[in-house]
Each structure stands twice: as structure tokens, then as C-alpha cells.
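1st attempt posting a full record on here, be nice pls
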Amino acid sequence: STQSTWEENGIYRWDENVTRREDTYSIDTPPPTVSGVLHMGHVFSYTQADFIARFQRMRGKNVFYPIGFDDNGLPTERLVEKVKGIHASRVDRREFKALCMEVVSHAEEQFPMY
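the predicted structure (as C-alpha cells):
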């Protein structure tokens, strides 16, 4: 599979031991919030940075381009309220936090990190 080829060849591997700044290219982007079902708009917003990361790798750079989810904050709270049909202000804080973790976990399963 493509994924195993990438892993075997270290295509997207970040080498934290590279010490020369000239050999490193870092892309710092805020992670997407889990605020709903991921869609093509999310893909579009990361296409340009991904293109730059790939170009820099082809030039031999050690590219640091972390991707992840921001599962904290208001967008996630609103998603949980919508998915669970509840209002955060009417639920015990610990119970609401557990519901947030459940909903976020489900969203992250759709896009596993390798």
C-alpha cells in the first residue's frame, strides 16, 4: 500500500537530530478544530501547505509539518452539544468533559495518524 511505502522509505519522517537550521524546513499551522464532520473545505485549507512541505522534501530538507486535531475549545463544545442534543451549562462539568472526549475520539478515528 502507499502508506507502507511511505513508512518503509521514511518519506514523512522528521529527524529531530538534524541540528543545522539550513537543513530544516518547519511549517507551523494551527490544528483544525473538531467542530463537525471533516469535509473538502478542510482538505482545501491544507493543500497549499502540503504542497510546500512536499516541495521542500524534494529539495532534501528535513521537513517538520505536524498535523493533528485541536480537541479543546468552543467549537468542540458546540459540536458535542449538537451531536448529543444537550446544553453544556445544564450538564455536570465532568460528564460534559467525558462526552467531549467521546465525540472527539470518534472524529479522530476517521483520520488515523500513522
